[in-house]
Input
Amino acid sequence: MQLLPMNVPAEIHRWVNKDAADVIVARGPLVIMAHGLMALDPAERGSCWIATAAGDLSPGDAEEALRSWSRRH
Output
């Protein structure tokens, strides 16, 4: 996964039903959205992802990004 800048605009999306409908849960900088996604119960994270203009991040990708950003500082 290519590490994106922390401040890119991002949205947390969540599947709401089996007909592939999703809703936007939150919008903000990627670093805040990644922390928000990790704050969810691990059992609930699988129905969510983060969308950016550069592509989507799974919960695992978001967790990896947070670790990478932490190591760089």
